[in-house]
Write a structure and sequence with these properties.
Number of strands: 12
Low-confidence stretches: 94-116, 187-191
Largest sheet: 6 strands, parallel
Strand order of the largest sheet: 9-8-10-11-7-12
Oligomer: single chain
Strand content: 15-25%
Distance between the termini: 52 Å
Shape: elongated
Amino acid sequence: MVTSALTPATAETQLEFPDNFLLIDLCGEHDRHLTMIESALGVQVLRRGNQLTIVGEEDARQEAGRVLSALYQRLEAGKAVELGDIDREFRMVTSDNDDHSDADEQTELFKGDPSGARVEIKTRKKVVEPRTEAQKAYVRGLFENELAFGIGPAGTGKTYLAVAVGVNMFINGQVDRIILSRPAVEAGEKLGYLPGDMKDKVDPYMQPLYDALNDFLPGKQSAKLIEEKKIEIAPLAFMRGRTLSNAFVVLDEAQNATTMQMKMFLTRLGEGSRMVITGDRTQIDLPRGVNSGLWDAERLLKSIPKISFNYFTSKDVVRHPLVAAIIEAYEADDPK
């Protein structure tokens, strides 16, 4: 329980926290959590005993109080607070009018907030929480639709969240296997010139998928599941002729699939399967004059019910802050 008091004369807001040990975790090592909040909101946060005093403009004080209270509630629930959690609180705007779905109860997806606005994805290694409203809507779409598209710039969590949901569904028994794919588009180097057999040649293209998977499953378990073919990571060309039943299937970097490849992939969808298509329309590596299958799929499928399209912008980038600034600079220079 957090109590607060406003002191108008001195433009201060006081928050009182009953558990001093949790308050230490809330402030962070060397008060780095408080420093992050001060820097982001232009306030000053002073600690006095079990109280935090926020000094600054009224709107900024209210926002700082909201963030600190939400983070303290997280600690009371037995969860850690890291810098990423503070970033998420800045980005998220929780509303009592959020639309909630009963379809997600079996996955234990929505936890923490009595209103159901919090979204969590449980995996074997960690609990993943969307950091922006667009990410939250995307995760809901992944659970509620058999076919979902995530379109936007790099660093917005499109693939990461899709793989997390896939692992969640796999460990909950909703699917029997996970299939992760992406086009092995040659960008600068010809595949034939790379050393090794075909697996050695294509694995560098698949590495981002391995990286995401290893974030959610212990290394030995991940390797065992790959060996047992319960998890497959393969180039898009390897999907031809297959019917993918009872699987969670992710096509990453879909902007580099041709129209025919995209059609081939989409028609692999089998009974009991979920399919996620992710891509960035600004990073097409196809030869000049070859249409992107992602663009065609978006144009042709947007009116079909039960297919979700979720879009991200530079505001949803959750990598280094400079990444968002770089994307915005390129978007501003785009002639279209």
